[in-house]
Specification:
The structure holds 2 protein chains of 2 kinds.
Chain A: H1 3-6, H2 10-17, H3 31-56, H4 61-72
Chain B: H1 5-25, H2 36-59, H3 62-70, H4 72-83, H5 90-107, H6 115-141, H7 146-173, H8 184-210, H9 213-235, H10 241-284
Classes of the chains: A mainly alpha, B mainly alpha.
Chain lengths: 98, 285
């Protein structure tokens, strides 16, 4: 975490870590709830976005064309290999910077 | 028709901002104002990070994109150690190394390098790491909850993404997103995506605030591993030994990270207690 967090008084840190309620008066939530929600919602979002892309009939052509153009403009391939089938999940772009 | 992903992200942010405003009005939490200049900079940085990550995947191979995502952890650790005076125990650093090796082995495949993609990828890593560090430090600095920070910054993030979406999506997909027309089915699924994104945005800020930016990244890789496992177990993707080995190593790294973090926190909590007990006993003498 940040410098401010590492320099926070121990009592504050202990209170924060010991939070067990799902939500406090400021709209804060417990760490366990946040972690669970993060995993469940992120995975669900990926699945919904994948469905969205499939109904849009997304083809990788556009991004491949961009990539090829950039490579031809001065880059060079470092190595190449097979893209695994499971990585199809990442062939579309993500909507969060995570 | 390709998806205008930056525009979709902008819609995610618009809905997040609206829902949080409504929740604050209904009394679910108290809205707090943060300095405008600071929150605008924070919003712009986070939006730029999302746009750059999208551009990075457009300009780079999936494998190189995965590598840039992996590098967010070491960059975050480096930035926090250098500029935020944060210390990481040897156990945490080792567990992160194991995690990165595992995720790398299972996801990085077709690494191809090009100049434009590398610059965009590098910028996306730095902005993402900085944005996530600031998400935590701003909550501490202003003594506000993750929900309050998200509520204050979401309108600015939405506005920046709305401005960035046409050129970024134009570069990635070609054409003008504003001239596209979508079927009802697409609009319904996009709306569901927006609903889920509210939960994702809410959880992102909460995890970084309650835990740390690095923990958030580790959880992000757990998500990746779950999707990979889902691919093997449910979708019937071919089981590749290297991928399975990487998945197991990554899970091992996550377990070690959780243990190292808990140990580091226990030490941080115990040290001042011991010091105050020593002071009390010295005063008693």
């Amino acid at each position: 975490m940040s410098a401010a967090r590492s320099e926070a008084p121990t009592s504050t840190r202990a209170t924060t870590n010991a939070t067990t309620t799902v939500q406090d008066a400021n709209g804060g939530v417990s760490a366990a709830f946040a972690l669970t929600l993060s995993v469940v919602s992120s995975v669900s979002l990926v699945i919904v976005n994948k469905h969205l892309i499939s109904i849009l009939g997304f083809r990788e052509g556009a991004s491949r064309a961009t990539r090829e153009g950039a490579r031809e403009a001065g880059g060079r391939p470092l190595a190449s290999g097979r893209v695994s089938g499971v990585l199809d999940f990442w062939k579309f772009r993500e909507t969060r910077g995570d | 028709m390709a998806i205008a992903v930056t525009f979709l992200t902008a819609m995610h942010m618009v809905l997040t901002a609206l829902v949080l405003r409504a929740a604050a009005r209904m009394g679910y939490f108290e809205k707090k104002s943060v300095g405008r200049a600071e929150v605008v900079k924070f919003g712009v940085l986070n939006s730029a990070s999302i746009a750059l990550l999208n551009l990075s995947l457009g300009f780079n191979s999936v494998g190189f994109y995965q590598m840039t995502k992996l590098s967010i952890i070491p960059v975050t650790v480096g930035l926090q150690m250098t500029y935020f005076n944060k210390k990481f125990s040897a156990g945490v650093k080792m567990s992160l190394l194991v995690l990165l090796l595992g995720v790398g082995a299972s996801t990085v495949t077709d690494v191809q390098l090009n100049a434009t993609g590398s610059v965009v990828g590098g910028l996306s890593v730095v902005t993402t790491a900085l944005g996530q560090i600031l998400t935590g430090s701003m909550q501490q600095k202003h003594q506000i909850s993750s929900t309050q920070l998200l509520c204050a910054s979401a309108p600015w993030m939405a506005m920046t993404l709305m401005i960035l979406a046409p050129p970024v999506d134009g570069v990635l997909n070609g054409g003008n997103i504003l001239e596209s027309s979508y079927s009802n089915e697409v609009l319904i699924v996009a709306f569901i995506s927006c609903g889920l994104a509210i939960a994702v945005n809410f959880a992102t800020f909460a995890v970084i605030g309650k835990c740390s930016a690095v923990t958030y990244q580790v959880v992000g890789h757990l998500k990746t591993m779950l999707i990979l496992g889902f691919g093997f177990a449910v979708v019937g993707d071919p089981i590749v030994a290297k991928n399975v080995f990487g998945l197991l190593v990554a899970l091992c790294g996550m377990f070690l990270y959780a243990r190292a973090e808990m140990r580091a926190r226990a030490v941080a909590t115990a040290a001042p207690r011991r010091a105050s007990a020593d002071e009390e006993s010295a005063a008693g003498k």
